Amino acid sequence: MAEQDAAPGAGVSDAACPDPATEAFVAHRNLLFTVAYEMLGSVADAEDVVQETWLRWTEIDLDTVRDRRAYLVRVTTRQALTRMRTLRRRKETYVGPWLPEPLLTAPDVADDVELVDSISMAMLLVLETLTPTERAVFVLREVFELEYDEIAEGVGKSPAAVRQTAHRARAHVAARRPRDVVSPAETRAALQAFQRAVETGDLQSLLDILAPDVVALSDGGGIKQAVRRPVVGARKVARLLAAGLDLVGAQISLEPVRINGAPGLVLRLGGEIDGVMAVRVEGGLVTGLYFMRNPEKLSGMAREIAVGR
Predict the structure, then answer these.
(1) What is the pLDDT of residues 151-182, one digit of tens each?
(2) Is this structure's pTM higher than 0.85?
(3) Of 97, 158, 239, 270, which one has the greatest count of Cβ atoms within 10 A?
(4) What kind and span of H or E run contains 218?
């Protein structure tokens, strides 16, 4: 992409943004990326959507825009809905389980508990079960608290239809999302216990920190080896982890990081990133393991990515 076409980045200061259009876009860029990412579950596609929004924004007469934030969100929503069709075709031919692309996020994101919940791997997988319009409506209403008439303009529906869609999506998500509210400290403690058990290879310690009905999912995309079906149950998951560690031995290292706003682990093999593991914790135990190994879906781990509302 040509350098002059690049959208202004999150690190651009006001002093470097003399014109009102650029200032407005930079002020809302983190929000726009987060909207696109929650709708798509893909870092690369979300960044493309933000770029497309920027290109359309540069053609707008600002004097005709009453609410710049709402306008930018509407454009982003439309672009993301269009891109969803491409993603659906990709997923139909995807090899093995599909997981959202992980984000390396700054520690202070954890202060916004609702935002962290909305970008968690568990929530993104629940959102995958919605239709594109339901997903857009749910994200815009429940996460970003847009009014129904604003959402209606973004998804091309009437406000009444959007209300019905929001009700249906809310019920669908409520029936499938993790029910417990877990503090960051509880998640961190469980992850530390899990990391110690993995590093020592202590099978009993793994069994102690894994919930009896824990589910492990891994995504290799046909490029890296990964289990093709969910692995369910503490003993099966523990044996899977132990077998993987036996294969790589002392070459592997685990680095605690913030993945999608929550504690997670980067696995390095010979110093290079081999995978990223996000966890879901409930009741002090690990109830979900999400292991991303597809190297094409690890661009979000190259640098901290700013998200926001």
Answers:
(1) 998 899 999 999 999 999 999 999 888 766 67
(2) yes
(3) 97
(4) strand 210-219
